[in-house]
Amino acid sequence: MARVVLRNPRREVEVQAPTPVKVMLRELAIDPETVLVIRGTDLLTREDVIAADDEIEIRPVISGGAVNVSKCRRCRGQAVIELQRHNSAFCKECFLHFFREQVRRAIEREDMLSPTDRVLVAVSGGKDSLALWDALIELGYDTTGYHIVLWTGEEYAPESLRHSQAFADERGVKLIVCDLKEDMGFSVPDLPKVTGRPTCGACGLTKRHLIAKAAGDLGFDVVAIGHNLDDEAAVLLGNVLRWDEEYLARQSPVLPATTDGFVKKVKPLYRLSERETAAYAFLRGIDYQVEECPLVVGNTQMRYKGVLDEIERTSPGTKASFYHGFLERGRGRFTGSGPPDLRTCASCGMPTTGETCAFCRMRKQHGEHASR
Ligand code: AMP
Ligand code: ZN
Known about the structure:
This protein has helices spanning about 20-25, 90-110, 125-140, 155-170, 180-185, 190-195, 200-215, 230-240, 245-250, 275-285, 300-315, 320-330, 360-370, and strands spanning about 1-5, 10-15, 20, 35-40, 40-45, 50, 55-60, 80-85, 90, 120, 140-150, 175-180, 220-225, 255, 265, 345, 350. By secondary structure, it is α/β, with parallel strands linked by helices. The strands form 5 sheets. A 6-stranded mixed beta sheet has the order 12-11-10-13-15-14, sandwiched between helices. Residues about 65-70 have low confidence and may be disordered.
């Protein structure tokens, strides 16, 4: 018998061994394209065989795929990961190379970074942002991490900080930590009842504001965030379903700096799927937060991701062609209403269209609610 640990939520099962990975997955009714199969520090392919006494972890990741090739496309060695949408497989070293190459290409194509830029990397402690930070370090960029303790769950928030801090300590890079409750007097779960905004909306607004403000105040040239292909495709699907021309005009892996104080913002993982970032983080030995944010369950973006995953399962590559097609042929067609007339927020000094910015208005609402 081999012991198999399933994650998210965590449960354990025993399976008859020896048995090929594909048979085990079939018996557990798990779609091989939605998980990483891990033994110790190795990733297993569908063709690998699980031995008796093995301890296997099955770690869910969204999207991606698996094919019947088990030779590395680059070096013909034993593959550890199959990428169906690229119709190929890679060994560990070649996959790490492939991943960084995708990041490098993203940076070059979209003119994201120059070699001397001081980059503030927004890190959540999850796979995407830590994989991003690692790849940027490996590519030689001057990076500093920025983590916000959002107080989204008793265990989740301190764990997220711990993963981010451990990464920074191991690599001897600097992590700046902002504690929302300490610095602002409120936390994300407080916001919906006060502001009427959905939790994820209020959290997103808070993150965007604090990250942009920190980058500006601390004199960084660029902010890098960990949004990947799955995130961007899900946002695009939402924008298309609503035909939101303003958002379609602005959706881009690069948001340029504005003269009035917004620092340039880039998403160097836009060419990589969630499964690929998970595999990269794992193969680099990054101990990331595997659990999802407890507040995110069932939000709109997750549902759009589910729909895209469903399509991807039967037509691998659809997600990438949907998003890349938009970048190449779609985005130029939406002009929106042009750059808004911005002034300075009376309260925090950030650019805004109104008297005070949306974040400061939310903060004020919370203050009024709390003093009632
Ligand atoms: P999410 O909104 O959780 O999908 O995260 C998108 C990106 O925002 C991540 O890849 C990070 O770059 C950044 N981010 C998310 N949470 C945090 C956090 N607590 N502190 C700093 N950056 C974050
Ligand atoms: Zn403000």
